[in-house]
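Appendix C reproduces, verbatim, an entry submitted by the partner laboratory led by Prof. M.T., so that reviewers can inspect both the input and the predicted structure.
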Amino acid sequence: DELPAKLRTSKSIFLDVIKGHELPTATILVTSRPSASGPLYKECRDFIAQHVEILGFTDENIQSYLENTTLHNPSLLEGLQQYLTYYPHTRPMLYIPLNCA
């Protein structure tokens, strides 16, 4: 799920495409985890027209989302909160908005 090291070198076809040396009129969308995209962004900053980073939910956003989606069913909210307390390893998945939908 991460760009192989050989594609991150200055002589890779991937970076040539990003920098517009190959396919200069193409629109390119690259998705990545923020931790993996940092070095790539630094390498290609001058060639990137837009950079968007989705940070995800905060703890308050998660609580608000759960409350709003269970407005008509308080027992469901209570059950979700108990589940998250009992299985804390599942909570990190909620920081990604798509996983809450």
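The two ends are 23 Å apart (CA to CA). Additional entries are available on request from the coordinating office.
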